[in-house]
Amino acid sequence: MFLGYAISLAYTPIMLRLLGQRQYGLYNLVASVVSYLGILNFGFISAYMRYYSRYKVKDEQENIARLNGMFVIIFTVFGRVEVPPKEKIRRVEKSPGNSCELKLYLICLT
């Protein structure tokens, strides 16, 4: 734990010098968003594996189909919440002076 803090303290001035203040702030924002998206998993993958293997052993094809359908719906909803609509991305694209920030933003969306 202490080593992580020490690395962050040494790493921050170097990144500030390399990226500049605005780009470093954007970098931190994107890193935070990516880590929060990882938390959104909520353990769904392990739950899926548990119930899928349970139904597979008992050869319950109907329950496997229901399980797959439920997880497709759940991850579709999460995906829609996480990715903004294309209209908002186009609006940001047209704004002047945000070329570097926009490129990084669009790279993180793909």
What does the overall shape look like? elongated
Alpha-carbon distance between the two ends: 32 Å
Unreliable sequence segments: 106-110
Major sheet:
none
Approximate helicity band: over 70%
SSE ordering: HHHHHH
SSE order and pairing:
Elements: H1 2-19, H2 21-39, H3 44-57, H4 61-82, H5 86-94, H6 99-109
Helix pairs in contact: 1-2, 2-6, 3-4
Polypeptide structure, described:
By secondary structure, this protein is mostly helical. It has a domain at 1-33. The protein is built from six helices and no strands.
Describe what is shown at a glance.
The protein is 85% helix and 0% strand. It is mainly alpha-helical and 110 residues long.
Core attributes:
disordered C terminus, 110 residues, mainly alpha
